[in-house]
Amino acid sequence: MSGEQDLGITESKEHSPGEWYAEVVQKAGLADYAPMGGFIVTRPRGYAIWERIQSHLDGWFKDTGAQNAYFPLFIPESYLEREKDVVEGFDPEVAWVTHGGHDELEERLAVRPTSESIIAPFMADWTRSHRDLPLRLNQWCSVVRWEATETKPFFRTKEFLWQEGHTAHADEDGAWDETMTRLDQYERLYEEVMAMPPLKGRKPPHDKFPGAHTTTTVEALMPDGKSVQAATSHYLGTSFAEAFDITYADEDEEENVAHTTSWGLSWRAMGALIMTHSDDQGLVLPPALAPTQVVVVPIWQEDTKDDVLEYAADLAAELEEADVRVELDDRDHRNPGFKYNEHELNGVPLRIEVGPHEVEDEEATLVHRPDGESETVDRDDIDDTVEDHLDTIHAKLYASAEETLEGEIREAESREEILGTIGQHGGYVKCGWCGDEDCEDPIKEAIAAEIVMVPLDRDEEPIHDDCAICGEDAEETAYFAKSY
Ligand SMILES: [Zn+2]
């Protein structure tokens, strides 16, 4: 049958992860490449996954005091220049608008690489007294960073979708709590919704967000041994508030400078999700994010067709009533084998097979997408049974990702050991570190691995007494990895 050859994934996750990833994204109908290099088109199936990620996070944000707002796509150059670290940090990546129609603009406009510089002046306006604080804004939008790298859907694109939260607080404690609340929500998203165990930490000082006091991060390990910065939450201190005059009168009418935060998660989370769970049959999705959670596939001969179809339709209707996202695949012109392959490619977490035997015995056969495990169950209480199986599928995905992560954190005590271990295995290598950026350089130059994080707790004792690179006293534990 023509078409069947087009369906399968031909690349191997193990041997050619880059090509395999690109093939899964396209064949599972998540995204296509746009005509301009660095841009992608997100197809409905891909966008549906993003919407579910969005809806989980958005609910938690609102439950914890954040409100959504929307600011312009363009930022006047003079606004961008008000925080010098931001200008310097983003300068090579900013796309500029110089003309409106045929007329040259008096002031060029930056296409937002991030929105601190356009949001902060309004936060300053809206903050008069301590009663206006905390002020918590969030924006769902796209940003543009003109990086000249090879396009990798959801991982590396010049324009990407994200959310950016921006908050102002009366003091450091309030702002620091906020930073951690958001970091915990990102961790929760990865664990409970995406079935991935992330590592939580801080960026080393030389790699924090431009202008930030502290950048906290959740990092996720990819199957090719590289780390992905999966979301970040920044405590900005008072630098942005000073640059943009976010001040407030306290209870004694004294003028104070606010402390601010910003925090963001992009669709790179989707890239990490696809790469972590999917396999050589195609996409694998955790049930919480799958647009279709269950597909019911009836298997019939001419003489059993009516009975099987009626039974399958009833079953699907009952699941739909229980709010399971279910699809009945009763297409006449496709055989069951073709349908199985297609739903596996598209990452439907649970397949229910219904044939004459199931009808006769009032049963249903459930097959798990991630590992093909199947079980024949009673037709009674099928909605509860299916919910249990979807939970089991989430747990299986999580356990498998966790097992991979645990085996991929190793220790090293010398520069050679760091290079050898990452060179051979990839993954994370933790070691003592003196805190000097210069000690990262030789690792970066030799194998393009860097310090992706240090422990969140500043008081935590380093795992070794000496810096693995220079031998001086270690200040903290550094996690080295190659990263996206
Ligand atoms: Zn050192």
What this model shows, in words?
The chain is of the alpha+beta class and 484 residues long. The protein folds into three domains: 9-277, 2-Layer Sandwich (BirA Bifunctional Protein, domain 2); 294-392, Anticodon-binding domain (Rossmann fold, 3-Layer(aba) Sandwich); 409-481, C-terminal domain of ProRS (Translation Initiation Factor IF3, 2-Layer Sandwich), CATH 3.30.110.30. It has 15 helices and 23 strands. Helix 14 runs parallel beside helix 15. The relative contact order is 0.11. It has helices spanning 4-7, 17-27, 44-63, 77-80, 84-90, 116-126, 172-193, 239-244, 268-277, 305-321, 336-345, 356-361, 382-407, 415-425, 441-447; strands spanning 31-33, 40-42, 67-68, 74-76, 95-100, 103-111, 135-144, 159-169, 199-202, 214-221, 227-237, 247-249, 255-257, 259-266, 294-298, 326-328, 350-354, 363-368, 374-378, 409-411, 428-433, 449-453, 476-482. The strands form six sheets. It has a seven-stranded mixed sheet, with helices on both faces. Strand 12 and strand 13 (255-257) form a beta hairpin. The two termini are 39 Å apart. It is an enzyme of class 6 (ligase).
Core attributes:
484 residues; alpha+beta; BirA Bifunctional Protein, domain 2; Rossmann fold; Translation Initiation Factor IF3; 3 domains; seven-stranded mixed sheet; five-stranded mixed sheet; 15 helices; disordered N terminus; binds zinc ion
